[in-house]
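hey m, so remember when u said the tokens were messed up on ur end? i reran from scratch. heres the input so u can diff it against urs
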Amino acid sequence: MATDVKQATGLPSGWEVRHSNSKNLPYYFNPTTKESRWEPPAGTDSETLKHYMGTYHSSANLHPDGAGSQEGKIRASHLLVKHRDSRRPSSWRQAQITRSKDEAMGIILGHEARIRSGQTSLGDLATTESDCSSSRKRGDLGFFGKGDMQKEFEDAAFALKPGEVSGVVETASGLHLIER
């Protein structure tokens, strides 16, 4: 099977192509080592990968006529506070996150209080306080559908009305506030 994957994608054994919802770009992921990267890993067959990406990850192939591209999808922003038990305890803000889950909860509850009081917005806070790379876009994750996000995140996001902000949502990534 690993040979079939290499033949199809050109990637070394153990690597796969995934899609980043925050950047709306494909990336490379190794589920065994949990390593993710924007550049193809060493040992990639560039020509095979180029063909694979052109066939399966080209925006022209997603919705050639543009019709229905947002059908069944919602758009949301979030603010993420990671802790040492998060799936990937590092971020653009901090190479190694060492705070406990309780400390992270205290931080995110403080953010929620500031948002609910009208002192600031989720987007303004996300820019400087979110542990997600979507912070560059004020926490905007773009449009996503059912099955695109972690279940807890998706359930909370789809339950919100446009303009609403969730309470704290816990996922394997950390603690989130979500705004639809």
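this time it looks ok to me. The first strand starts at residue 16 and ends at 20. if urs says something different then somethings off w ur setup not the seq
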